[in-house]
Design goal:
The chain is mainly α and about 200 residues long. The chain is built from 9 helices and no strands.
């Protein structure tokens, strides 16, 4: 029987560790997740965890990166269904905030993530998000859909609003009610950028 290539074995080991850790972080939380338990579940040792991720914190970063990538895929699918690009952009922004209601995202990304990794606005994924928002807003301004304003400044304001709304939702006693308020406020903010609304003010 042929041996698997080393790169494939490494990828498989990393996948097992991330899957087991994600399950543990999502059910009992980062602080109570036992490295021995989830490495044993993956059929691996602590040594494998340290080799591939450095420590438990590094594994949390990998789990959050995986969840973030999945969220991005879902958001792209949502925007693709819209009737036009602006509506797709709005739908994507609102859906991002609404995802803060999902238990796994709440616990791992919005509660344990900031507690362990620090301010989410400094995470590497945020730079990519701001870059993408900036390009979209620049395009909308160039075509006259939204008011003329510095696109990076708008992107940073919008990104901050969405991020803090998500953190708010994840850390209150009534996330459902808070989500509704946050989504409505965000919709009002986005509507205010449209050039067609200027004449009524």
């Amino acid at each position: 029987m042929a041996h698997k290539p080393r790169s494939e074995m490494i990828a498989e080991t990393r996948r097992k560790l991330v899957t087991a850790a994600r399950r543990a972080f999502g059910t009992v939380g980062y602080a109570d997740a036992s490295m021995d338990d989830f490495t044993a579940e993956a059929g691996l040792t602590r040594g494998a965890l340290y080799h591939h991720f450095g420590d438990k914190r590094g594994l949390l970063e990998a789990v959050i990166a995986e969840i973030d990538a999945e969220m991005n895929t879902r958001l792209c699918a949502i925007s693709a269904k819209a009737g036009n690009r602006w509506q797709g952009f709005v739908d994507e922004c609102l859906a991002y905030v609404e995802m803060a209601l999902e238990p796994e995202i709440q616990r791992i990304v919005l509660r344990d993530g900031p507690a362990v990794l620090g301010d989410p606005s400094t995470w590497p994924t945020q730079n990519a998000c701001i870059g993408s928002l900036t390009e979209s807003l620049r395009r909308f301004a160039d075509e006259g859909t939204i008011v003329a304003a510095d696109p990076e400044a708008l992107a940073r304001l919008l990104n901050g609003a969405m991020l803090h709304a998500s953190l708010w939702i994840a850390n209150v006693p009534d996330p459902e009610a808070t989500s509704k308020k946050a989504v409505q406020a965000l919709r009002t903010f986005l509507d205010g950028l449209l050039t067609e609304n200027r004449g009524s003010r």
